[in-house]
Backbone:
């Protein structure tokens, strides 16, 4: 236990997850990569239910990055199709008092998907059990650029004094405006990198990397990650 540690931290209020390893999971079973995405989507539902049960207030999951468009068209299509069925069944989540939010640039997505996303967000806006943020066509750098662009536009129009730009104003123009920073980041699949996820928001987040592929991820893995987290000593630059 690090020096200065006085007691266990509470369950993290906000958990961010990089849902990685779907392709490798499928390959090991001799299945098409899309089968891994399908299983990964089921795991996502299960983990969200569990988070709500144990009192986590926010889950932010990386579902599709701005770089994932580089993948073969058939894989991109399959992921979008999974999103479509998730959205059509989203009431399963929202009925459990979950608020759903989408982070990222929606404009390149199909019109019907954009409409479904807006509907789900609107219908679940007042739910308070848990907030589930799905990062979709999300890139941390693109997010920071979009906040900067918006503030620059207002300044150019004379509506904003550049000297009034501070961290909290900048933050309010990110996709996550109004959402507290993650306490814990989990990346399964054995990769040790952020892959452009929440670059701003993870400044003081605790990281846990796990050697399990996302479609094999269980509530026991989550418990293990939370257990590691609760033993950490968060200092935020202090002593
Ligand atoms: C994560 O799994 C899902 C997406 C990026 C959409 P991957 O598809 O990246 O799986 P691996 O990393 O290739 O195993
Ligand atoms: C990050 O995983 C994106 C998602 C999980 C949605 P990637 O599989 O795209 O990341 P890299 O390419 O291994 O860094
Ligand atoms: Mg991957």
Residues:
């Amino acid at each position: 236990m690090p020096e200065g540690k006085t007691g266990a931290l509470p369950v993290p209020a906000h958990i961010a997850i990089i849902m990685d390893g779907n392709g490798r999971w499928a390959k090991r079973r001799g299945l098409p990569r899309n089968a891994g995405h399908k299983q990964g989507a089921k795991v996502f539902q299960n983990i969200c239910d569990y988070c709500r049960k144990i009192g986590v207030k926010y889950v932010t999951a990386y579902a599709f990055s701005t770089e994932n468009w580089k993948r073969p068209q058939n894989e991109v299509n399959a992921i979008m199709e999974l999103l479509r069925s998730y959205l059509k069944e989203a009431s399963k989540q929202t009925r459990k008092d979950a608020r759903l939010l989408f982070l990222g640039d929606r404009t390149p997505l199909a019109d019907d998907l954009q409409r479904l996303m807006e509907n789900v967000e609107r219908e679940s806006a007042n739910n308070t059990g848990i907030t589930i943020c799905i990062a979709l066509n999300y890139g941390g750098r693109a997010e920071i650029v979009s906040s900067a662009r918006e503030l620059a536009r207002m300044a150019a129009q004379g509506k904003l004094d550049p000297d009034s730009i501070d961290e909290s104003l900048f933050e309010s123009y990110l996709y996550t405006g109004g959402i507290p920073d993650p306490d814990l980041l989990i990346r399964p699949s054995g990769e040790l990198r952020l892959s452009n996820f929440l670059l701003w928001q993870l400044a003081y987040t605790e990281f846990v990397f796990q050697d399990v592929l996302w479609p094999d991820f269980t509530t026991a893995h989550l418990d293990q990650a939370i257990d590691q987290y609760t033993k950490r000593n968060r200092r935020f630059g202090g002593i």
